[in-house]
Q: What sequence folds into this?
């Protein structure tokens, strides 16, 4: 039998002061998250963009449906085509007068909704703590 080759002796290392207390994670505000362009900040901005897009699409759909149905209504065989108000055809009054306040109101409703989305976003940015952490 041949003697087994001995492995080189390794000196043992003793750990005398292990790190037992890791620093607590710092809570960062939403404003810091956005400024640092972190993943969480991107989520905040994406949610604002999504809310604004949803308001724009809803307003556009309401405008398209409500105004787009008028030509169909006026070209149908319904008696609305022959109505007159003070000797003026109702079609002219609706298209020449009543459509404009409706479009103004839709625009105003969209601006109101967009401002509300932005106000909510700014309130989130100015809050000192994370709302998700408060829910826990």
A:
């Amino acid at each position: 039998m041949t003697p087994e080759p001995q492995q080189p002796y390794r000196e043992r290392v003793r750990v005398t002061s292990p790190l037992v207390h890791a620093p607590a994670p710092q809570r960062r505000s939403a404003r810091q998250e956005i400024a640092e362009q972190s993943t969480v900040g991107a989520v905040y901005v994406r949610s604002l963009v999504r809310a604004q897009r949803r308001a724009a699409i809803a307003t556009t759909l309401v405008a398209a449906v409500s105004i787009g149905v008028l030509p169909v209504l006026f070209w149908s065989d319904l008696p609305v085509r022959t109505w007159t108000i003070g000797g003026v055809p109702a079609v002219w009054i609706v298209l020449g007068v009543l459509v404009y306040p409706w479009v103004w109101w839709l625009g105003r409703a969209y601006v109101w909704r967009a401002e509300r989305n932005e106000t909510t976003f700014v309130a989130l940015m100015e809050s000192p703590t994370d709302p998700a952490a408060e829910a826990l």
About this structure: The chain has a mean pLDDT of 82. The longest helix spans residues 39-75.
